[in-house]
Specification:
382 residues, alpha+beta, 10-stranded antiparallel β-barrel, 8 helices, 36% helix, disordered C terminus
Length: 382
Amino acid sequence: MDDVVLGMPGPWAEDKCEASDPFTTKIGGLPDWPFQNEAIRSDLLECSACGSRLCLVAQVYAPISNRDLKIEERTIYFFGCVIPECGSMPHSWKAIRVQKHYIEKEPKAVLREVAPLTSSYTSVPETNSWWDKDLSANGFTEEDDDGTDEEIDLEELGKALSEAASVALNSKKQNKNLHQETVAKPLPLSPTTKVTDTRTPVLPCFYMYSQEEPPSKEVSSICLNSSIKENQHDLEEDKKEEKWEEEGYEYDRAIDADRTYLKFKKRMDAFPEQCFRYSYGGKPLLAKEESEGGGTCKLCGGSRHYEMQLMPPLLYFLQEAAKSSSKYSLENWNWMTILVFTCAKSCSHMVDPEKSDSHGWIMAEEAAVVQFEEEAVLTYLS
């Protein structure tokens, strides 16, 4: 999968602690778990560097639908530490995959049960010959029938069937309405009013909407048009000679710049508000050439692949909002991007399922690879 979906900023939440559901994509706020908090291992939500409680940075609904796998109930949660000393430490960031437990062999069993039903329907034409033989055995033939009685019987039969169908349909609607009224009031996956732990930091919250990124050629065209407009605006304000000298200097510096970073910046300039990029099994957009891999899954031991990454605008929006509405300072969050690698099989191995209180949901800590600002732009600035 090489298609890239961009996470773009939507409306701010009225309350940073307001509840939604696990299938909502948002930045900040409190995580919407599909199970009770008691089922969560406490160490998963603690900073590996200082032991403090982590805050939710992003919650991304990430279903999978391809030839090999289909999982609709699946969400990626991303956490960070607000302690100033931990902002620049890789071990202070965590990615957690939560999904419904699935068994791959179930669809095959269903197919085997359905198969005999299809074969029975193929024998329907044989009932006509059985009907003809029965009529012949009782002395009835087509020549003996003048058609009058048959038409009367069919009309009565049609009326009877129509009345029966109408009664059945009304009964089905009543049952359906009754069923809807019964299931319309289940206990919500997460309570409408969240009880927050005073130890858990909560960031300002805003919701996201998705937008597909166009192919690379179209991105180049967008960047070019944007650059032309900016240059025209600058030429109107500044003197031409000073402007051309400045641009020539920047161009000379760009020649020796890190090509990986320039590609990163080019994609950023095309959609400057993108908060995250999602491409299940695709290629990450690196801010620097050298990057750690995703390692192996802690549940099944299989390989991990790239799934998504957080982008700098997310930092900007949270830092600006935190200045006026949060007691936590995010100034030490100085990363350029954070790559998230998840199990390539999206496995759902459950540890001690009998003792688990997650009701068929699994939690797996995945790999979060941080690329910090100083390392990414070192070559560019030198």
